[in-house]
Amino acid sequence: MPAAGARDRETRTRPEDVDAPGSAEPFLPLQRDLDHLRAAAATCRGCALYARATQTVFGEGPVHPEVFFVGEQPGDYEDQQGRPFVGPAGQLLERALAKAGIERSKVYVTNAVKHFKWEPRGKRRIHNRPNAKEIAACRPWLDAELDAVKPTVVVCLGAVAAQALLGASFSVLRQRGQLLSANGLPVMATVHPASVLRAPDEDARHAAELAFERDIESVVPIIRASKAA
Ligand code: URA
Ligand code: SF4
Q1: Is the C-beta atom of 41 inside 6 A of ligand 2?
Q2: Most CB atoms within 10 A, among 53, 141, 166, 227?
């Protein structure tokens, strides 16, 4: 899909005026390998969020990744580039991977919701958190990605991803770093890297980044164990 210009985006249908089925399910292809999934997701109209976004941002990475990262939804950069985690949050994630000794080429990154949800404020596009219905509508893509790539371990980045996979009662504050399971896979949830970037001052940011890195490092033994098996 061609990326629409900013003017074009503003004149598009508002998400609240779109009549969508409320699930991505009717848009899933028969063949469920990554290439077919990505091509089909590009035309998903499962919920209203496609209406204001530039394009679908599908997951990226190898089959059988060591880690499968799930974020919330594409941000402004990702919406424009069509690739997940290419902005500042992605850079922070890359630093944590490097510190943990996890190769970037061996991880798969995706989001719980594949279209950027935003509100206009002047000329800016303000990130808007996806609601439970939108997360549920997009879930078939996430499940299909997990089935297609069969990762060693899944890491949820933030509450939206954690609640998508681990249930609405999951609390990142209380349960971050715990090893749980979903979709028959080991799953750990930590904070969203964007929350680290939002820390109020330099000391808080540094502490938050260290805690984030510790959580990422905690899945390394699972990767090692699966290689040894
Ligand atoms: N934040 C996310 O949750 N996902 C991205 O792809 C980028 C920023
Ligand atoms: Fe489809 Fe998900 Fe985009 Fe909604 S957010 S239109 S379900 S890809």
Answers
A1: yes
A2: 141
